[in-house]
# Entry
Amino acid sequence: MEIESGDLLSYAVDVWVSDTALLTDAGRLLQIMRKASEAGSAVVLGETFHVFPNGAVSAVLLLSASHLSVNTWPEYSLANVDLLVYGRIKGDLIIETLAAGMSITRMNSTRLLRAVH
# Structure
């Protein structure tokens, strides 16, 4: 699939990590997400997170014309990542930087071209 700079792409990524403490550390997770967004030329417009009673974290960055969310499952050493990108934002680079920052042991990734017009 050939990707154009004006295409809307959706990424669904499952990552398993070696350091499960990351999956309950909202501050550290948001820091990694911000760094990944910056690496992919995305502008962060806002962010929020929630920590659940078991320590799992849901974190969201509102990006210019897109978003990045991470939901963790510490009991499975797993995080689900959703990324929607448009325009000149480099989604592949965001995912690569996020994966490197999370010290993953395994990853499943799906990329879907979405319609915008």
Q: What stands out?
A: The mean pLDDT is 92. The first strand starts at residue 8 and ends at 17.
